[in-house]
Amino acid sequence: MLLSTTAVLAQSAPPDTVALEQITVAGERRGAAFGANGGRMPNDPFVQGYTPKQTTTALKIPAPIQDIPVSVQVVPQELIQDRGALTVRQAIDTVSGVTSSNAIPGSQSFRIRGFNDGFSNLRDGFRETSNQQDVQGIERIEVLKGPASVLYGGNLAAGGVVNIVTKTPVDLNFANAALTGGSFGLVRPTFDVNQDLTGDGRLAMRVTGAFERTDTYRDFAYGDSKFVNPSLRWRPTAQDEIIVRAQVLQSNFSYGPYQSPLSRTTLRLPYSFSFSDP
Known about the structure:
Blueprint: E1 54-55, E2 63-64, E3 71-76, H1 77-83, H2 88-91, E4 98-100, E5 110-112, E6 115-117, E7 122-123, E8 126-127, E9 138-145, H3 149-152, E10 160-166, E11 174-182, E12 186-196, E13 203-215, E14 222-234, E15 242-245, E16 248-254, H4 264-267
Parallel strand pairs: 7-10
Antiparallel strand pairs: 1-2, 3-9, 4-5, 5-6, 7-8, 9-10, 11-12, 12-13, 13-14, 14-15, 14-16
């Protein structure tokens, strides 16, 4: 039998030891504060980075995405801004199984899971009629995949439905402006202004807008659009909220000389011009 013992030695702190004060470190997610996220409220359940927690499209009421028994994918505004998306087509590229089916600038015609849902989209939960939307007025894009006719009725295609949620007033005062430039003479100034008119959140207004002018790689093709999106929010009581929205979008564009065969531009073309050239 072998026996072993371990000696335990007590040590005392040196007389010159200095006790440091306790330091508390608090972190905050980048983009949650005013100004860095386009005026969104901190701890907003609909917008939390690239992974929003709630949606209204699936059940028509705010509900956690993880508790909804259908496939829902959300494109938040933070992702749209970080990717620098200039059109709805570019903004929705991150959604699997969804592609744009129309080349018109600002078009909301999509092909979802192989079904062409050209005129079955929603704006703020209501049936979309204009079928055009500037990305500057979008807060987030919610895509409900699968048969959507059970919830929304009508002749919505079986592939799903796209709900464009527009920007509305928030309980902050801010004014943002940006200027985007790019190839082919792209110039796009944008602005976003929000104001709490009463100071207590009962009455607030928000105005967003964008102006764009660009050419393309095709001869005689161009794009010119003007967009303004005002909204007013009134809270008569702590439980009730009334929002009035309006949108004005003027879009002029041309794919090239072959779009209008009898236009003056086409009649002035030389005989050697080929419409098959870019």
